Amino acid sequence: MAVNHPEPTPERFPGPALPEHLETVALTRTTARVEDRVIIGGVPMRIVDVVRTHTGVRLDLEEGERLWLTARTRLTAFREADIDPFGSRAR
């Protein structure tokens, strides 16, 4: 089932500048990466550290906030797309 997510444009998400090429990813405790971006309360936030524990994953955000992901947590995040010099996505 394809999910249609809005593109993260400066008009829709004012605040810190978002990179030009982003892809939508499902953010879970196994897929979280440093540099992923989540939008919480309309504010884009960048993940600066991912700490994995036996109870879940703690995401340290650039603004100083912390977000815990447990086994059932599933969020939508944005990740910089891997694009080669010819413009196609590397997979």
Which structural class matches the secondary elements? mainly beta
Which CATH architecture of the domain at 22-80? Roll
- Cα-based radius of gyration, to the nearest Å: 14 Å
Strand order of the largest sheet: 2-3-4-5
Account of the protein in words:
The chain has 91 residues and is mostly beta strands. It has a domain at 22-80: Roll (SH3 type barrels). It has strands at 22-27, 37-40, 43-52, 57-61, 66-69, 75-80. It starts with 21 loop residues before the first strand and ends in an 11-residue tail after the last strand. The relative contact order is 0.24. The mean pLDDT is 80.
Task: Write a concise keyword list for the protein shown above.
91 residues, two-stranded antiparallel sheet, globular, 4-stranded antiparallel beta sheet, 6 strands, mainly beta, 0% helix, single chain
Secondary-structure topology with pairs:
Layout: E1 22-27, E2 37-40, E3 43-52, E4 57-61, E5 66-69, E6 75-80
Antiparallel strand pairs: 1-6, 2-3, 3-4, 4-5
